[in-house]
Amino acid sequence: MRMMTFLSLALAALISLITPAAAQSGSFAPAIIVNDSAVTQYELDQRIRFLTLLRVPGDPATEAEKGLIEDRLRRQAAKAAGITLTDQQIAAGMAEFASRANLETEQFLQAIGEAGVAPETFRDFVSAGLAWREVVRGRFAPRITITEAEIDRAMSVAAQRGAGPRVLMSEILMPMNPGNAAEIRALATELSGTIRSEAAFAAAARQYSAAPSRDQGGQLDWIPLTNLPPQVRQVIAGLANGQVSPPVPLGNAMGLFRLRGLQQGGEIVAANISVDYAQLLIPGGRSADTLAEAERVRSEVDTCDDLYRAAKGYPAEQLLRETRALTQVPGDIAAELAGLDDNETSTGLTRGNALVLLMLCKRSATLAAGSAPVVADVSAPAADGVPALDPTLGFGQGPSRAQVREELTNQRLAGFADGYLAELRANAIIRTP
Fold first, then answer.
1. Is 196's pLDDT higher than 80?
2. Domain 274-364 classified CATH 3.10.50.40?
3. How much is the pLDDT for 201?
4. Which CATH architecture has domain 161-269+390-398?
5. What pLDDT score does 142 carry?
6. 378-431 pLDDT tens trace
7. How far apart are CA 141 and CA 137, in angstroms?
8. Average pLDDT of the segment spanning 24-47
9. Within this chain, domains 161-269+390-398 and 274-364 share the same CATH topology
10. Pick from 16-30, 49-63, 332-346: least confident
11. Residue 267 pLDDT
């Protein structure tokens, strides 16, 4: 009986979509022609409805026309490159888009259907974007090389990562691979729709999250928005206090987030800064000989990594390197580091009978307030029903180098994509009948 009722409702919704559209005079006549590929008036009307429903900024009619022209160009580029999408790829793309509204695909289709948007309109919208992504990656990804120096700059205080608005949030991060993707996506959707309180979120984090924060119920301290991946920033920016996000795909994990507070922030605070520094302990105190030895070492190094070569022959315990939150660095070392730029050195300190050659490797703003380095025993067996702890997950430590590399790569790809689309449009023949 329930299935019959569902089918009846679905059929009624479908009829309500098709009948008005088909009744419109000339609805399937060409409205725009892009390189001999027609965009019908029906497609234009549908895209206007869809963009209106999504509350896309700008005039819906103008944006719809622009978007459909660009979609035709994207599809033509994909065809020229021999790119075709499978039904599974399109279905996954539709599911990902629908999940941003905390809905399954069928629920999303039902919701837009009530506003007069046909399923094919949504499918076409998603598939054009997916095909274009494949075009851009295939054409431009081999040209992109992100250097370690570029990653360092992107994570640096000078780049203002760590400045600006800050959020107080909780996280659940569930590892995902091709074998469990559907199961994890379904679980994340269920949790997103049923969690109503911080206590419920904390319980779910302890049971399902693999991030180190699960021991605190997923809670993180204040963290700059710039420390979050772009897709997480966008989701967090749209949440109200106490609200749980829809599932957010994060490559090798699916994330859920609960907003607990927002600050406008401003300058980078010490609690958000981490420092990577090295100390070479040169026996003999502060003397002419030790200062000369420090100068020899300093003249042979450009980066902290060079210290291992320049200090060859020193006992391992005399060359120390560590990364700490600035607030956890001993006061005398922090005072010396304050006057150094990356890869600069100081000989202002002594330890016992040793001169300290102190070198700042890099200063980064990548920590949530109060964060400490995570040390996890990944060999420890997981409890029943609880995933193994993964110290690479979670945002309390700020973005990993791999995440920053991906972010920079995507920024480069976006630039190439915009330029290529502009080129296609400039060379296209676009006319109205």
1. yes
2. yes
3. 95
4. Roll (3.10)
5. 94
6. 444 455 668 888 877 888 777 777 778 888 999 999 999 999 999 999 999 999
7. 5
8. 87
9. yes
10. 16-30
11. 66
- Determine the average pLDDT of the residues in 19-39: 72
> At residue 255, what are phi and psi to the nearest 5 degrees?
-115, 145
CATH says 2-142+416-431 is which class? mainly alpha
pTM attached to this predicted model: 0.66
Q: 239 is written with which tokens?
A: 């949440």
Q: Domain coordinates of the chain in residue numbers?
A: 2-142+416-431, 161-269+390-398, 274-364
Residue count of the chain: 433
Instruction: Please give the residue that has the higher pLDDT: either 12 or 324.
Output: 324
